[in-house]
Amino acid sequence: MPEKTLKSFDDILNAVKGKTPKRVAVAAAQDDAVLETVRGAREQKIAEFTLVGNIDKIKATAHRLSVNLDEVTIVHEPDNRRAAYRAAALVSSGQADVLMKGLINTADLLRAVLDKDVGLRTGRVLSHIAVYELPGFQRLLMITDGGMNITPALQQKADIIQNSVQLANVLGISPAKVAVLAAVEVVNPDMPATLDAAALTKMADRGQIKGAIVDGPLAFDNAISLEAAKHKGIISPVAGFADILVTPDIEAGNILGKSLVYAAKGKMAGLILGAAKPVVVTSRADTYEAKLMSIALGVLLS
């Protein structure tokens, strides 16, 4: 754990700068956005890179963008699916520390991650976590899972929480305060999200989820606002102080996350967790800063 709690993206960048750079293996690296991010990460001394993909296209793209590839390792593999397996194998063998998606379908990359011969499987479910820096908010806020699991069952949600707690601890947050979200704050048998939330709370109480204080069901307002929680008479160590928000399904997580970026002007970075090493999977719609910060998160976690 870092010496202090990391509360901003600048804190994360400062935590990874000045240390021996970790190595990121990029699958199908012949992509404008990827190579521009590689340049930025190297300039800021966040990471070094092994680029796996079509060497001619990588060099042509780098030349067009004026990206210096001196001292960057390139592994020639023109087939994108094979590039994913080769990049994942570099990470599992210890030749790289973080896996990153390039110009390839996310499903093809994750297929390589889950291949038993590659060696990145852990037995836990893979899940997406997004980390947000929000204007006027005095801490980082994490949301899971708005990018991987469509309608996770109870045990999958427990794995998702455990994955997110691992990242929270690396950010200096221990124990992590986890709010399991629903539309209401009481258990309602007609609302499955509230039943799962109550079960997950009890699982954490019994030690089945470690390193976290879990409470739910909680609505979004009383999860992050102490004033809202007091107004509703909610007494909870998590209400108003949540570090991690667990959404009922991918739709809620995706909508909430994009609302924070596009309506609340938040900044976002994200990772795929649950593998033996961090996996950086960014969207083409993500900003340059989001891509750079996602690499920094992966380096920090690795």
Can you give a write-up of this model?
Helices cover 40% and strands 19% of the residues. The protein has eleven helices and eleven strands. Helix 1 packs across helix 11 and helix 4 (80-92) crosses helix 5 (106-114). It is globular and about 60 Å long.
Characterize this entry briefly.
The protein is about 40% helix and about 20% strand.
Strand content bin: 15-25%
Uncertain runs: none
Q: Give the overall pLDDT as a whole number.
A: 93
Count up the helices. Answer: 11
- Amino-to-carboxy terminus distance: 12 Å
Kindly report the spatial arrangement of strands forming the biggest sheet: 8-7-9-6-5-10
Structural class: alpha/beta
What oligomeric assembly is this protein in? single chain
Main sheet record:
6 strands, mixed
The beta-strand count equals 11
Shape: globular
Radius of gyration: 19 Å
Which sequence of SSEs, written as H and E, runs from N to C? HEHEHEHEHEEHEHEHHEHEEH
Helix coverage percent: 40-55%
Topology:
Layout: H1 9-16, E1 22-27, H2 32-43, E2 47-53, H3 55-65, E3 73-76, H4 80-92, E4 98-101, H5 106-114, E5 127-133, E6 141-144, H6 154-170, E7 176-181, H7 192-205, E8 212-218, H8 220-224, H9 226-231, E9 244-246, H10 250-262, E10 267-273, E11 279-280, H11 288-301
Parallel strand pairs: 1-2, 1-4, 2-3, 4-11, 6-9, 7-8, 7-9
Antiparallel strand pairs: 5-6, 5-10
